[in-house]
């Protein structure tokens, strides 16, 4: 489940709706877990400029394809990466992955932790 789909723990910034704030510990954990993984960070770097297929990510990051799929699943579940479809004129369509987040900030408050996510303006395919 995309952690950002939970309205109960999400607040949009009044200044910019691309900024979301979460205080639920489960959501925070789900977002931070892949950000503590070097392979996930390398994947995020690889798709910083343009969406790539899992095979392209595996080649770019020098990862086994199975590892790439596993890490991509973590990133998609965390709401950090979107999975879309790359259409081909040959009829063989491929999944591609696009980075959704520019910035993630964790703050310690008197009430616990607060996570702020700054989302990109992305062309949803």
From TrEMBL:
One Pfam family this sequence matches: HTH_20
Origin superkingdom: Archaea
InterPro entries: ArsR-like_HTH (IPR011991), WH-like_DNA-bd_sf (IPR036388), WH_DNA-bd_sf (IPR036390)
Record's compositionally biased regions (Basic and acidic residues): 13-22
Coiled-coil segments on the chain, per record: none
Residue ranges of the region described as Disordered: 1-24
Protein name, as recorded: ArsR family transcriptional regulator
Organism name: Halalkaliarchaeum desulfuricum
């Amino acid at each position: 489940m995309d952690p950002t789909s939970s309205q109960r723990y999400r607040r949009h910034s009044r200044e910019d709706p691309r900024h979301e704030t979460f205080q639920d510990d489960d959501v925070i954990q789900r977002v931070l877990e892949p950000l503590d993984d070097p392979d996930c960070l390398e994947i995020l770097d690889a798709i910083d400029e343009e969406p790539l297929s899992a095979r392209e990510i595996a080649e770019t990051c020098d990862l086994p394809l199975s590892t790439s799929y596993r890490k991509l699943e973590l990133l998609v579940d965390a709401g950090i990466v979107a999975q879309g479809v790359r259409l081909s004129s040959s009829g063989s369509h491929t999944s591609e992955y696009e980075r959704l987040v520019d910035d993630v900030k964790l703050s310690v408050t008197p009430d616990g932790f607060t996570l702020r996510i700054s989302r990109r303006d992305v062309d949803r395919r």
